[in-house]
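Figure 6 in text form: structure in, sequence out.
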C-alpha cells in the first residue's frame, strides 16, 4: 500500500510537473509569437509623406508617375504645381517642399546658391521642345515649311505664351523668336499667362487662336493641334533639373527620388512628349 501510495504520489507529482512544464512552455511560446509579431510590425516601415513642388508642365506625367509610386510603396505624395519661379521663391522663403522639379536651370541654381537644396542630389530629369499650337483638334501640321512662313500666314492674331522674363517657357519662347528674327513683329500680339499650362489653356478654350508652348503640354491637351515644332537650335536647351531640398531627405523622399530615375517613370515621361536621355 505504501508503495502504491508512493507511486500514486509520484505519478501525481510527475503529472503536476508536466502540467507546470506545459504551462511554462505555453507562456514562452506565446511570448515568442508576440515577439515575432512585434518584430514583423517594426520591419514594415510606416507610410511616408512626401511634398513635391513641380513645374506646371510636368503635371500630366507626374500625376501618373506619382500614382504608381503610391501604389507600389504605400507612401503618400502631395504634388504642388506652378511656374518654376513661384515655387522657387516659396522654397527660398522656407516652404516645406521635399523635392523641387524646375523647368529650367536658373531657378535651381538660385536655390543651390542659397543652400536650399542638396547639391549632390541634383540631376537633369528630361528635356522638352517648343511647338506652335492652334485651337481645335485634328488640325494638319505644317510640314516642309519654315517657321517664318507659318507665322506669316497667322497675320496679327494673338499668341499665348508663358510670362516673359521669369517663367521658363516664356523665356525659351522669346529667345526662339528673337533668334529667328521675328520678335519685333510678333511681340505686340503676345498674350502672357502665369505659366506654361495657363498659356495652353488660353488656346484650348479659344481665348487665343495660337500659342507657343512645350510639346509635352500640347500632347496632353486634346483641344489643340501642333502646327510646327521650333528648331532646337533657336533657343537654349530645355532641361528639367530636380533636387531634394535641404534637410528633407527622408527615406520616403529618397525612394521617390530614385523612382524618378526608373525605367517605368522615364517611359511615362517619354510617352508624354518629354525628351529622355538626350
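Output sequence:
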Amino acid at each position: 500500500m505504501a508503495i502504491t501510495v508512493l507511486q500514486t504520489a509520484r505519478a501525481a507529482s510527475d503529472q503536476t510537473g508536466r502540467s507546470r512544464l506545459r504551462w511554462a512552455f505555453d507562456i514562452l511560446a506565446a511570448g515568442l509569437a508576440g515577439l515575432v509579431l512585434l518584430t514583423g510590425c517594426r520591419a514594415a516601415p510606416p507610410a511616408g509623406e512626401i511634398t513635391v513642388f513641380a513645374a506646371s508642365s510636368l503635371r500630366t506625367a507626374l500625376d501618373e508617375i506619382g500614382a504608381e509610386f503610391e501604389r507600389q510603396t504605400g507612401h503618400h505624395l502631395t504634388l504642388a504645381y506652378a511656374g518654376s519661379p513661384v515655387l522657387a521663391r516659396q522654397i527660398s522663403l522656407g516652404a516645406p517642399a521635399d523635392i523641387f522639379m524646375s523647368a529650367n536651370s536658373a531657378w535651381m541654381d538660385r536655390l543651390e546658391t542659397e543652400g536650399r537644396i542638396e547639391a549632390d542630389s541634383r540631376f537633369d530629369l528630361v528635356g522638352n521642345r517648343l511647338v506652335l499650337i492652334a485651337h481645335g483638334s485634328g488640325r494638319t501640321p505644317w510640314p516642309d515649311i519654315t517657321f517664318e512662313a507659318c507665322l506669316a500666314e497667322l497675320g496679327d492674331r494673338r499668341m499665348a505664351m508663358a510670362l516673359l522674363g521669369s517663367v521658363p517657357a516664356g523665356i525659351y519662347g522669346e529667345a526662339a523668336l528673337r533668334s529667328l528674327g521675328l520678335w519685333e513683329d510678333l511681340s505686340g500680339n503676345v498674350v502672357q499667362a502665369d505659366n506654361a499650362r495657363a498659356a495652353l489653356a488660353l488656346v484650348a478654350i479659344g481665348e487665343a487662336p495660337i500659342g507657343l508652348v512645350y510639346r509635352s503640354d500640347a500632347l496632353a491637351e486634346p483641344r489643340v493641334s501642333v502646327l510646327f515644332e521650333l528648331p532646337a537650335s533657336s533657343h537654349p536647351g530645355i532641361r528639367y533639373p530636380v533636387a531634394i531640398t535641404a534637410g528633407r531627405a527622408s527615406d520616403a523622399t529618397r525612394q521617390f527620388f530614385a523612382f524618378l530615375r526608373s525605367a517605368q517613370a522615364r517611359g511615362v515621361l517619354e510617352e508624354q512628349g518629354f525628351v529622355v536621355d538626350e
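Caption detail: The longest strand covers residues 49-55.
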